[in-house]
Amino acid sequence: xxxxxxxxxxLVALVALSIHNPASACTAFQLKSNDGAQIYFRSMEFGYPFxxxxxxxxxxxxxxxxxxxxxxxxxxxTKYGYVGLNVDVLPTVVADGQNEKGLAIGMLYLPxxxxxxxxxxxxxxxxxxxxxxxxxxxxxxxTVEEAVAALKNDVYVAQQEFVPFKEVLPVHWWxxxxxxxxxxxxxxDGRLNIHDAxxxxxxxxxxxxxxxxxxxxxxxxxxxxxxxxxxxxxTAVNYGQGSGAIGLPGDLSPPSRFIRASLFSHWxxxxxxxEETVNLGFHILNTFDIFNGAIQTNTADQTANTKGFLSAGxxxxxxxxxxxxxxxxxxxxxxxxxxxxxxxxxxxxxxLKAIDFDQPGMRVIALQNDFxxxxxxxxxxxxxxxxxx
Length: 389
Fold this sequence. Notes:
alpha+beta
């Protein structure tokens, strides 16, 4: 049986040396359909293309984690099969995935705050890198409770460099199971913080507890239209739709996206079925879609919290620092995963129940990533005559 080492030493050559400080503006939330399906949604934004594929990891796959300074870390064998979106610089690792028990995990950036456990005291037999946490939890845990216990007792997430980016990968994790329970796991100042997440929402910095408190600043917002307001002898009238949400932050910063995701996911009218609700969730994701050019950075103005995909040397210039590369949904009840890409737009699905997770060897499914509009010109039909009254 082949053992996969997730260490990056042999993969550095795959990454252009010009990559510095990649950005991320991801947004995650969940919905529940009227028939009880618990469904997760997430957009993936980054400063350079991941070229992701859908990775299938079967039961019995052996992994070796990464310890600081290129040491071998914790070894594990997958108990549960899972699927997820990988990255071409590290194709055996998923940034977002779901296992056959309905546990879903999303890895999102937390720049400026994430700090993992001390490297100099890392026990090699328990140590993982931050980017390996989703693989480990999806492979070994069926519920949120098991995932939290594993983080607390079974692993040591060490502070160490992610070689392609030449920096520590500052991430936190959205963790949800088939029951609908969600927690957010973050390492701050070297200590693990587990937050119950009744909102089911996650974006980026600041940490989750601040983001949750900030929601109270928008307590007056509502999807219900305000028809008019009396201001003394003057009447302010609503001339359009959406007046109940005036003041909703519309920018693309993490706090503003957290507010919108929290409100939209609770205002949305669930579909009667899981598939109707998946469709609804992708419409919500449309409101977070970042097109090329929507977020730019001057290469002369970089700081630790304004990360971008920059080229070394040359004159300062404006660069696109985030684009929605893909959006994914995990139906944790019916064990289906849905994904669309920036260029593809069409929704593609994977049915975990139809996968033979006993078949050895990892497999990948290429995602449609071409803009290919359907030509419907020749599908014209005669217009039915209207009935006379």
